[in-house]
Specification:
Strand order of the largest sheet: 3-2-4-1-5
Oligomer: single chain
Number of domains: 1
CATH topology: Rossmann fold
CATH superfamily: Phosphoglycerate mutase-like
Helix content: 40-55%
Largest sheet: 5 strands, mixed
CATH class: Alpha Beta
Number of strands: 5
Radius of gyration: 16 Å
Length: about 190
Protein backbone atom coordinates (compact mmCIF):
# COMPACT_ATOMS: atom_id res chain seq x y z
CA UNK A 1 0.00 0.00 0.00
CA UNK A 2 1.18 3.50 -0.86
CA UNK A 3 1.62 6.05 1.88
CA UNK A 4 0.63 9.54 0.75
CA UNK A 5 1.92 12.60 2.55
CA UNK A 6 -0.42 15.42 1.55
CA UNK A 7 0.99 18.93 1.87
CA UNK A 8 -0.85 22.13 1.07
CA UNK A 9 1.43 24.90 -0.18
CA UNK A 10 2.57 27.64 2.19
CA UNK A 11 0.79 30.96 2.56
CA UNK A 12 0.55 33.57 -0.21
CA UNK A 13 -0.42 37.22 0.05
CA UNK A 14 -3.82 36.35 -1.45
CA UNK A 15 -4.35 33.67 1.23
CA UNK A 16 -3.56 36.24 3.90
CA UNK A 17 -5.93 38.77 2.31
CA UNK A 18 -8.75 36.21 1.98
CA UNK A 19 -8.89 36.08 -1.83
CA UNK A 20 -9.91 33.21 -4.09
CA UNK A 21 -6.84 32.05 -6.00
CA UNK A 22 -7.75 29.06 -8.14
CA UNK A 23 -5.38 28.83 -11.10
CA UNK A 24 -3.93 32.32 -10.59
CA UNK A 25 -0.19 31.77 -10.18
CA UNK A 26 0.72 33.49 -6.90
CA UNK A 27 4.11 32.97 -5.18
CA UNK A 28 4.58 32.21 -1.50
CA UNK A 29 5.05 35.20 0.78
CA UNK A 30 7.76 35.26 3.48
CA UNK A 31 5.52 33.41 5.94
CA UNK A 32 4.72 30.82 3.27
CA UNK A 33 8.40 30.26 2.52
CA UNK A 34 9.05 29.72 6.25
CA UNK A 35 6.08 27.34 6.44
CA UNK A 36 7.44 25.36 3.47
CA UNK A 37 10.85 25.08 5.17
CA UNK A 38 9.20 23.96 8.43
CA UNK A 39 7.19 21.30 6.56
CA UNK A 40 10.39 20.13 4.91
CA UNK A 41 12.17 19.91 8.26
CA UNK A 42 9.29 17.87 9.68
CA UNK A 43 9.87 15.35 6.86
CA UNK A 44 13.65 15.25 7.29
CA UNK A 45 14.69 11.62 7.45
CA UNK A 46 11.44 10.47 5.85
CA UNK A 47 12.06 8.24 2.92
CA UNK A 48 10.07 9.74 0.03
CA UNK A 49 10.14 7.98 -3.34
CA UNK A 50 8.83 11.09 -5.10
CA UNK A 51 7.18 14.46 -4.60
CA UNK A 52 4.23 15.05 -6.92
CA UNK A 53 3.31 18.71 -7.21
CA UNK A 54 1.00 21.11 -8.95
CA UNK A 55 2.65 23.22 -11.62
CA UNK A 56 1.55 26.46 -9.92
CA UNK A 57 4.39 28.44 -8.36
CA UNK A 58 3.17 28.34 -4.74
CA UNK A 59 3.05 24.54 -4.79
CA UNK A 60 6.34 24.27 -6.70
CA UNK A 61 8.09 26.47 -4.11
CA UNK A 62 6.76 24.23 -1.33
CA UNK A 63 7.79 21.06 -3.21
CA UNK A 64 11.26 22.52 -3.82
CA UNK A 65 11.73 22.97 -0.06
CA UNK A 66 10.69 19.33 0.54
CA UNK A 67 13.03 18.11 -2.19
CA UNK A 68 16.02 20.01 -0.78
CA UNK A 69 15.50 18.30 2.57
CA UNK A 70 14.43 14.80 1.49
CA UNK A 71 16.36 14.58 -1.79
CA UNK A 72 13.25 13.05 -3.41
CA UNK A 73 12.66 13.77 -7.10
CA UNK A 74 9.87 16.15 -8.09
CA UNK A 75 7.15 15.18 -10.56
CA UNK A 76 5.12 18.16 -11.81
CA UNK A 77 1.53 17.39 -12.78
CA UNK A 78 -1.13 19.94 -13.81
CA UNK A 79 -3.85 17.64 -12.48
CA UNK A 80 -2.81 18.77 -8.99
CA UNK A 81 -3.87 22.37 -9.64
CA UNK A 82 -6.38 24.04 -7.36
CA UNK A 83 -10.06 23.99 -8.28
CA UNK A 84 -10.61 26.68 -10.88
CA UNK A 85 -12.46 29.61 -9.31
CA UNK A 86 -13.35 31.30 -12.60
CA UNK A 87 -14.74 34.81 -12.16
CA UNK A 88 -14.11 34.62 -8.41
CA UNK A 89 -10.32 34.48 -8.78
CA UNK A 90 -8.68 37.50 -7.17
CA UNK A 91 -11.83 38.55 -5.35
CA UNK A 92 -12.18 38.64 -1.57
CA UNK A 93 -14.18 35.84 0.07
CA UNK A 94 -16.24 38.52 1.84
CA UNK A 95 -17.13 40.22 -1.47
CA UNK A 96 -18.21 36.94 -3.05
CA UNK A 97 -20.26 36.02 0.02
CA UNK A 98 -22.24 39.24 -0.41
CA UNK A 99 -22.39 39.44 -4.21
CA UNK A 100 -23.09 35.73 -4.87
CA UNK A 101 -24.65 34.63 -1.56
CA UNK A 102 -27.10 32.18 -3.19
CA UNK A 103 -24.39 30.51 -5.28
CA UNK A 104 -22.04 30.31 -2.28
CA UNK A 105 -24.79 28.61 -0.23
CA UNK A 106 -25.61 26.23 -3.09
CA UNK A 107 -21.92 25.38 -3.52
CA UNK A 108 -21.71 24.54 0.18
CA UNK A 109 -24.78 22.27 0.10
CA UNK A 110 -24.11 20.75 -3.36
CA UNK A 111 -20.36 20.95 -3.98
CA UNK A 112 -20.39 18.04 -6.40
CA UNK A 113 -21.94 19.97 -9.28
CA UNK A 114 -22.00 23.65 -8.26
CA UNK A 115 -19.21 25.85 -9.53
CA UNK A 116 -18.28 29.52 -9.54
CA UNK A 117 -19.03 31.27 -12.85
CA UNK A 118 -16.37 29.98 -15.25
CA UNK A 119 -14.92 27.80 -12.48
CA UNK A 120 -14.82 24.14 -11.57
CA UNK A 121 -16.99 21.79 -9.50
CA UNK A 122 -15.83 19.05 -7.15
CA UNK A 123 -16.94 16.45 -9.71
CA UNK A 124 -14.70 18.04 -12.35
CA UNK A 125 -11.78 18.15 -9.91
CA UNK A 126 -12.33 14.47 -9.04
CA UNK A 127 -12.33 13.58 -12.73
CA UNK A 128 -8.83 14.99 -13.13
CA UNK A 129 -7.18 14.06 -9.81
CA UNK A 130 -8.49 10.57 -8.98
CA UNK A 131 -6.85 8.94 -12.03
CA UNK A 132 -3.56 10.49 -10.89
CA UNK A 133 -3.96 8.87 -7.46
CA UNK A 134 -4.41 5.50 -9.18
CA UNK A 135 -1.26 6.12 -11.23
CA UNK A 136 0.69 7.01 -8.08
CA UNK A 137 -0.50 3.82 -6.36
CA UNK A 138 0.57 1.71 -9.37
CA UNK A 139 3.97 3.43 -9.65
CA UNK A 140 4.69 3.35 -5.90
CA UNK A 141 2.85 0.32 -4.45
CA UNK A 142 4.94 0.17 -1.26
CA UNK A 143 6.46 3.67 -1.12
CA UNK A 144 5.85 6.91 0.74
CA UNK A 145 5.08 9.71 -1.70
CA UNK A 146 4.43 13.40 -1.04
CA UNK A 147 1.67 15.24 -2.90
CA UNK A 148 1.98 19.03 -2.80
CA UNK A 149 -1.13 20.82 -3.94
CA UNK A 150 -3.82 23.28 -2.89
CA UNK A 151 -6.46 23.48 -0.17
CA UNK A 152 -9.53 22.73 -2.26
CA UNK A 153 -7.96 19.98 -4.33
CA UNK A 154 -6.43 18.29 -1.29
CA UNK A 155 -9.86 18.39 0.37
CA UNK A 156 -11.23 16.54 -2.68
CA UNK A 157 -8.44 13.96 -2.28
CA UNK A 158 -9.07 13.62 1.46
CA UNK A 159 -12.81 12.91 1.13
CA UNK A 160 -11.89 10.18 -1.36
CA UNK A 161 -9.21 8.64 0.87
CA UNK A 162 -11.37 8.86 4.02
CA UNK A 163 -14.57 7.79 2.21
CA UNK A 164 -16.41 10.89 3.43
CA UNK A 165 -19.53 12.36 1.85
CA UNK A 166 -18.90 15.09 -0.69
CA UNK A 167 -20.73 17.60 1.52
CA UNK A 168 -17.77 17.36 3.94
CA UNK A 169 -15.29 18.60 1.34
CA UNK A 170 -14.99 22.21 2.52
CA UNK A 171 -14.38 20.99 6.10
CA UNK A 172 -11.35 18.99 4.92
CA UNK A 173 -9.22 21.87 3.63
CA UNK A 174 -5.80 21.39 5.27
CA UNK A 175 -3.70 24.06 6.94
CA UNK A 176 -0.84 25.56 4.99
CA UNK A 177 2.28 23.39 4.83
CA UNK A 178 1.07 20.88 7.44
CA UNK A 179 1.88 17.36 6.21
CA UNK A 180 -0.82 14.72 6.72
CA UNK A 181 -0.21 11.04 5.98
CA UNK A 182 -2.77 8.64 4.49
CA UNK A 183 -2.73 5.21 2.91
CA UNK A 184 -3.74 4.57 -0.66
CA UNK A 185 -4.79 1.12 -1.81
CA UNK A 186 -3.74 0.01 -5.27
CA UNK A 187 -6.61 0.10 -7.79
Amino acid sequence: MTRLVLVRHGETDWNREGRYMGHTDQPLNDKGLAQAEAAAQSLQGASLAAIYTSDLRRARQTADALARTTRAPIVVDRRLRELGQGDWEGQLFSQIARADADLVARRRSDPMDTRPPGGESVREAQTRVLPLLSEIARRHPTDRVAVVSHGGLLAVVKIHLLDLPVEAVWDQIPDHASPEEFTLEAP
